[in-house]
Every structure is written in structure tokens, then in C-alpha cells.
Design a protein that fits this description.
It is a single chain. The protein is built from 11 helices and 18 strands. By secondary structure, the chain is of the alpha+beta class. The protein has 3 domains: 85 residues, Multidrug-efflux Transporter Regulator, Chain: A, Domain 2 (Orthogonal Bundle); 149 residues, DNA Polymerase III, subunit A, domain 2 (DNA Polymerase III, Chain A, domain 2), CATH 3.10.150.10; 84 residues, DNA Polymerase III, Chain A, domain 2, CATH 3.10.150. Strand 6 and strand 7 form a beta hairpin. Helix 4 runs antiparallel to helix 5. The two termini are 23 Å apart.
């Protein structure tokens, strides 16, 4: 007999998936210990589990998987090939339709790019060194590393009035932090800001800061790390943005380089989420529980508190990447988790810091 952990390791399904398929009646354990609830699988179920894993990776619907497994177990030589052929035809048809839709999307994007004019980003502002260092530390972990999406491989600097927001995302998580300038941003010599102080600019400012146009650049990670290395003594730092050039100077030392040329996603739109249920986090306890996790997915159990558990029992349950959650927990010892729903991003907030939060996409527990 195999335990659920051994079956997950040997089949490639994972413990969460095995629990889901048990509840769905697709792959039921040979025996469940009535005292502990532990699931045990017979040796002959390993082949069935491996077949199930391959079918799910191919995207086959669960209803068809049931029939394939039933036909395979019963030695049906006609049903299974027909189901596989039908699924392959649907995939090929779906791929052709997706190609057509993506071609249309590319055409729309091309039209939008040619119809827009981009002004030169330029501004200069003085920032508290400690505040800028803390903001860089708060978002650095969420920056992307995918070479196919180079614009996510940096930290986005969004200046409006006396506020500087730093943003990083790799699509699966996003971190936002804010620091304030010692004075309102001023245009750099010989250049103009990217946007006027219009009503629409003020309307989209989540913190209500006005007093100047909005200037945005995305700083590549090597340059952002070099900036952070300068900020060791808390002395004020002067940030200058001039076209594609970014420069930080403090205590007679400076680093400079070119920003990433591509447009960063509209992070403000990504944060327009409905209000959810806020729960306090026992950060030290969660760190201890997550530190022993070897799986790629762990289950958070949400009752009056948030704990690491399994999929059975009372309370809401949501799957997360344990390494990603550990990164987000580094933001502080007192954090709140805002839960909107099983498919919505989890929001981690610091109650003592305005405009500092992180979003973490949940992981499906159904496969």
C-alpha cells in the first residue's frame, strides 16, 4: 500500500490533486484509516494515477477522464481511442480559434500603439534614503525573471506629486510600496513631464496626491539593486529621470543607467478589487509552518485565523505557492490577509503603512 504522499510523488499528481480526485470519485483510495483519515492506495492504482495525471496535463475534461479510466480498467478497446481522438480534435479546433483571436488582438494593439504619442519622462525629486531603501526591499522579491517578458524584470517607478510608488510583478504576485519626496517632483532640466495635472490624472490617484504630472519609468533589476546598495546610511537621495536615463545620487555617490523601454502594465487597474474579509496573520507561526513545506502548493485554512492545513474540515480553503507566501510575509511582523474569494488574489496588508501591500494569486486545488 502507498500513502497519499508516496502516491503523489510516484504518480506526479500531488497530494492536493489526489484529495480532489477522491472527493470527485475519480480515483478513490483502496482504504481510508477510520481513526486518522489517512488515505492508502493499492499498488495497482499507481498506473491509473499516472494515466490520470497525463490526461489532466492534456486538458481533458473531468467527465471524459472518468470514461477513459472506466474503459481502461474494463479493457474496452473501442471507447478509449474515440475519447482521445475527440479530445485531440477539440484541442486542434480551439488552437485554430485562439490563433485567430490573438491575431485580432495584435492588430488592435498595433492600432493603439500607432495612435498614441509618448512624451519624454522627466522629473527630479529628493527622497529620504531610508524610505526609498525600505520601498525597494518591499517589492524586489516580486519582480519577474521570464526572458519572454523583459518589462517585468524590473521595478516600476511611478511619480505623481510628492508620492513615489514602486511596483514589481511576475504575473503570479505583485508588490506595491510607497515613499514620499521631501518636496514635489520638478521637471528635469530641458524636459517636460509625461502628463498634465488633469482631472483624470487626479481621479486615478489612489492615495489622493496631486501637485504635479505623472512620470513613470521601469528600472531594470541590476540598476535597482545598485541603487539599493547606495542607500546604506539613510541620507537623502536625489532621483533624476530624464527620458530613458535614470540616476540616483546620495552623499556624493551615484549610479545611473537606462530604463526598460517597454510599457509596464497598468498596476492601478490590477488593484481594483472588491472588498474582502480581513484576517490577522500570525506571521511567526506561518513562517514556521511554511518552512517545512516541500510541495509546490500548500493549503491555507481561513476561519477566524489563518493556518496551514489540508483540504478537509471547516473554513474557507485556498491554495498558495508556499515560497511566494514566505516572500510576502517578509513585509513585517504584523500583517493582515484580505480574502475576496477562492479565485481572487489574496491581499497582504500592513495596517501601519499606507499604500503598501502585495497580491498573491491562488493556486487551484482541483488538479
Amino acid at each position: 500500500m502507498r500513502s497519499i504522499g508516496e502516491m503523489g510523488r510516484d504518480s506526479g499528481l500531488g497530494v492536493s490533486a489526489l484529495r480532489f480526485y477522491d472527493r470527485a470519485g475519480v480515483l478513490v483510495p483502496a482504504w481510508v484509516d477510520p481513526a486518522t483519515g489517512y488515505r492508502w492506495y493499492a499498488p495497482e492504482q499507481l498506473g491509473e494515477a499516472r494515466l490520470l495525471a497525463r490526461l489532466r496535463r492534456s486538458g481533458m475534461p473531468l467527465a471524459d477522464i472518468r470514461l477513459v479510466l472506466a474503459g481502461w480498467a474494463g479493457g474496452d478497446t473501442g471507447l478509449v481511442p474515440r475519447l482521445l481522438d475527440g479530445h485531440l480534435r477539440r484541442l486542434e479546433s480551439g488552437l485554430a480559434e485562439a490563433r485567430e483571436e490573438l491575431s485580432a488582438v495584435r492588430a488592435l494593439l498595433g492600432h493603439k500603439e500607432t495612435s498614441m504619442t509618448t512624451a519624454t519622462a522627466a522629473a527630479r525629486l529628493t527622497l529620504p534614503g531610508a524610505g526609498l531603501a525600505a520601498a525597494l526591499d518591499a517589492v524586489r522579491y516580486a519582480a519577474g525573471t521570464d526572458p519572454e517578458l523583459p518589462v517585468l524584470g524590473g521595478i516600476h517607478f511611478d511619480i505623481e506629486g510628492d508620492a513615489l510608488h514602486l511596483v514589481a510583478t511576475d504575473r503570479y504576485r505583485m508588490a506595491v510600496a510607497r515613499t514620499s519626496a521631501t518636496g514635489a517632483a520638478t521637471p528635469a532640466d530641458g524636459a517636460a513631464a509625461t502628463a498634465s495635472d488633469s482631472a483624470s490624472d487626479r481621479a486615478c490617484d489612489p492615495a489622493g496626491h496631486g501637485g504635479g504630472g505623472r512620470v513613470q519609468v521601469t528600472v531594470p533589476l541590476p540598476l535597482a539593486d545598485a541603487m539599493r546598495a547606495l542607500l546604506t546610511d539613510g541620507a537623502p537621495a536625489r532621483l533624476t529621470l530624464d527620458g530613458g536615463r535614470v540616476e540616483l545620487e546620495t552623499q556624493g555617490r551615484q549610479v545611473a543607467g537606462q530604463s526598460l523601454g517597454e510599457d509596464f502594465p497598468d498596476y492601478r487597474r490590477l488593484t481594483l478589487l472588491p472588498e474582502g474579509r480581513r484576517l490577522p496573520l500570525d506571521v511567526p507561526a506561518l513562517r514556521r509552518a511554511l518552512g517545512g513545506q516541500e510541495a509546490e502548493v500548500c493549503v491555507l485554512v481561513l476561519t477566524d485565523t489563518v493556518t496551514v492545513g489540508d483540504e478537509d474540515g471547516a473554513g474557507d480553503r485556498v491554495g498558495v505557492n508556499p515560497a511566494f507566501l514566505l516572500d510576502a510575509l517578509a513585509a513585517g511582523e504584523e500583517l493582515l490577509l484580505e480574502y475576496i474569494g477562492p479565485k481572487a488574489p489574496l491581499v497582504l496588508l500592513r495596517p501601519d503603512v499606507e499604500d503598501a501591500f502585495s497580491l498573491l494569486m491562488p493556486v487551484s486545488l482541483e488538479a
